[in-house]
Write a structure and sequence with these properties.
Layout (H helix, E strand, L loop, with lengths): L2 E2 L14 H10 L4 E7 L21 H14 L5 E8 L6 H8 L6 E4 L19 H15 L5 E2 L11 H18 L3 E4 H5 L7 H10 L3 E4 L11 H14 L10
Parallel strand pairs: 1-2, 2-3, 3-4, 4-5, 6-7
Helix pairs in contact: 4-5, 5-7
The structure holds zinc ion (2 copies).
One zinc ion (ZN) binds next to loops.
Length: 252
């Protein structure tokens, strides 16, 4: 692919490598538009005492943006570099979080919903049974409806361990909603690299049926993720099998 909008940096505490190494690996892989989208710092209200371990700290935000912007200048003749964030949609904090992020002037945001409710406290654990997946889909659709997101990362993150009827009902609902809003859904390469439960063909069959736009996302947490041509081939094979066509041109 000549684009990737899903790129992390070591600031999130579960990625490795220097920012520059991501850029150089992406160039080597033939990427023309590279979007950094590290896990956004969160401006939770002061009464929330915990500090999230899987995203950059608030005090790292400007340094992240400066680093990406300066690499964009330095490598301008080789690659187009954008600076964005991956975010959750937390209903109670969404507006204040959007206001907070304005200071970084991000080029775009992607929605990657890893937790339900407002993160603190986490509500509806998997023990809630099939309701958990319904809640996930409802929350994601509400997030997309804000219009704040360029695309939906790993839409199929939550769908394992539920009854086939629930998965079918909820994944169909998610695919139809994304289609209605015209928001691309991601076929996530991290899941393939790490053998996770996603990409989930059950979701992508509904995406095909609904006519969703499907975008490839490297979800790089290390620079070498860009050099996995084998993973891209597998993603293309999945897309072909389920009958979706992956977006081939940059969308931003
Ligand atoms: Zn991550
Ligand atoms: Zn991500």
């Amino acid at each position: 692919m000549i684009y990737n909008y899903h790129t992390h940096t070591k600031r999130c505490n579960h990625a490795t490598g220097a920012d520059r190494e991501y850029v150089e690996a992406a160039i080597k892989a033939g990427i023309k538009t590279l979007g950094f989208s590290d896990h956004a710092p969160y401006d939770f209200p002061a009464e929330i005492p915990e500090y999230s371990y899987f995203r950059m700290k608030k005090e790292e935000g400007f340094e992240y943006v400066e680093s990406v912007r300066s690499l964009a200048k330095e490598y301008a003749s080789d690659i187009r570099i954008l600076c964005g964030f991956e975010m959750e949609y937390y209903p109670d904090y969404h507006q204040s979080q959007m206001d907070y992020l304005k200071r970084f002037s991000p080029d775009y945001l992607i929605l990657g919903q890893h937790m339900l409710g407002n993160e603190f406290p986490t509500i509806l654990p998997r023990e809630a049974g099939d309701l958990h997946l319904s809640y996930y889909v409802t929350q994601v659709l509400a997030g997309l409806a804000t219009g704040d997101f360029l695309y939906l990362a790993h839409p199929d993150l939550a769908g394992y361990g539920f009854s086939p009827e629930t998965v079918a009902r909820e994944y169909r609902r998610l695919a139809l909603g994304a289609k209605r809003m015209g928001i691309p859904v991601e076929l996530n390469a991290l899941g393939l690299r790490e053998g996770r439960a996603y990409p989930d063909v059950r979701f992508f069959r509904f995406a095909a049926e609904a006519g969703c736009k499907v975008i490839y996302g490297v979800d790089a947490h290390s620079p070498d993720a860009f050099l996995r041509a084998d993973i891209e081939e597998r993603a293309k094979k999945i897309a072909l099998e389920v009958g979706v066509s992956l977006i081939t041109d940059p969308i931003l």
